[in-house]
Every structure is written in C-alpha cells, then in structure tokens.
Amino acid sequence: MTGTTLTDRAILRISGEEARPFLQGLLTRDVLTLAQGVPRWTALLSAQGKALFDMMLWADGDDVLIDCEAAQADALAKRLTLYRLRRKIVIARDESLAVHWAPDAADRPLDPRLPALGHRWIAAPGDGDAAAAFRAHRLSQGVFEGAGELGQDQTLWLETNAGELNGVDYDKGCYVGQENTARMHYRAKVNRRLVAVPLAQAEGKRQRAALPDMDLSIELRRVEDLDPALLPDWLAAAIAAQAAAE
Questions:
Q1: Do residues 22 and 83 make contact, with C-beta atoms less than 8 angstroms apart?
Q2: pLDDT tens-digit map of 110-131
Q3: What's the CA gap between 60 and 23, in Å, rounded?
Q4: pLDDT tens digits along 212-239
Q5: What pLDDT, on the 0 to 100 scale, is given for residue 1?
Q6: CA atoms in the 13 A half-sphere facing the CB of 69
Q7: Do residues 208 and 221 touch, judged by C-beta distance below 8 A?
Q8: Do residues 150 and 133 lie in contact, with contact meaning Cβ atoms separated by under 8 Å?
Q9: CB 66 within 8 A of CB 41
C-alpha cells in the first residue's frame, strides 16, 4: 500500500441551519448526536427498507460530511436534493477533502463498523491510493459496502448485516424505510444474510457480485443454508445468538 487516500470515496458537505434535522428524517443512524471525530455508518433506504446508498457521516462543526462511494456521489446528492424541498440547506461535493485509511493509526478514529477494519479519517487528499488495500482488508473481514456489493434497492438493510455493524439506531425516530427495518429487528426475522463464499460455491440466483480477483462471490443466502466455517466470527456469533433466542 502506498499512501492512505481512498480514491474511490468522495465527500458531500451538507450545510445550513437545518442540515442535521434534514438528515435525521432520512437516514438509519441518529444525526443529531453526531460528534466530532466519531463517524457513523448509515444508509438511505427505499420505503421498503432496502439499501439505496450506504455512507459514513462525520461532524464538521454544524455541517455534516458524507463519506460515500465516489461513483455514487452525484446520484446520492441528486436523491438528497429531491427530499430537500424548501429547507435551508446546501448539498455539494467538497473536493478539498478526501477519505483516508490505515490498518494501524492509533491517533485516528476506528472504523465504526468493526474495529478490525482499521482507522479512517477525513483530511486533504494525499499522494498514493489505499483503495485496493482497504477493499481486500474489508472483504477479508466479511464487511460489504457500495452499490456493487450491497445491491441497490435489492437487499433489505438488516440483511446486509447492518444491525451487527452499527448501521442502525432503533430508537432515533422515523426515517425512510424504518417500518420494515424495525419490524424485522423486533421480530428477529432476519432470515437472509449477505455473505462471501468461494467462487466455486457460487449460486447465480443469489449473487450480488462476483469478485474473481479475490475468488469470492457475494451472495444473499438463507441463514439455514450458511456454513458457519465460511462466516467471519462476528457474524457467526450474531446468527448463533439469533437462533438461541428463537
């Protein structure tokens, strides 16, 4: 790995006096309590609770920075603009900032999804590109992100393992897709999970993405069909706990 910049990420800045209340009514995590230096993973869902855009939120004073997939940044900005209506907010890309990552940078925030993912921060763009290194490390931990892996408007948010990866607040109030998400949680009805399996075991109808360079297939599979030996420890433990509670 050379450098720390994740060149496949972009920053959207949401500013204005209504920025936080605006996002609070849309996203799966609480935005009103977002604190400096403590990022939160969240998503904008469809009305049915399916993932449209996943993202990291960062506080920058009264502004909120959205750390998102660069290929989806313009589409996300356009979707947010549809919800803006007459609110006094500005939605714009901030080209002066970039997302950075390192596996070990003790003075930087941990990735909020899983400590094993390493450290992540926002700063001016730097030389080099850590995107491929982070992708390989993230997938080795069984964590998925972006439209290509999660599927856009295809996968229910809790099926992406968002509950286990700190991607939802169940007591924050209403947001788009909340009803179905809350129902699945309180009824413990997450019957399918997004997982990675060797390409040799791929099942086309369940596949979200094929990654030949890593010999992986990302698939949405029924919980009862999962081989615990293929699961990361954090997900195996969560599925076992759910089974014990049923």
A1: yes
A2: 999 999 999 999 999 999 999 9
A3: 14
A4: 999 999 999 999 999 998 899 999 999 9
A5: 58
A6: 18
A7: no
A8: no
A9: no
198's tokens: 């060797």
| CA 173, chain centre distance (Å) | 20
Domain ranges of the chain: 9-130, 157-245
Q: Phi, psi (5° rounding) for residue 157?
A: -55, -40
CATH 3.40.1190.10 fits 9-130, yes or no: no
Q: Torsion-angle region of residue 142: left (phi > 0), alpha (psi -120 to 50) or beta?
A: left
Nearest Cα to 68, choosing from 56, 82, 52, 80? 56
d(CA 206, CA 62): 42
Euclidean distance between CA atoms 19 and 74, whole angstroms = 18
Q: Is 33 helix (H, G, I), strand (E, B) or coil?
A: coil
Q: Is the pLDDT of residue 2 over 80?
A: no
**Could you tell me if 190 and 223 are in contact, meaning their C-beta atoms sit under 8 angstroms apart?**
yes
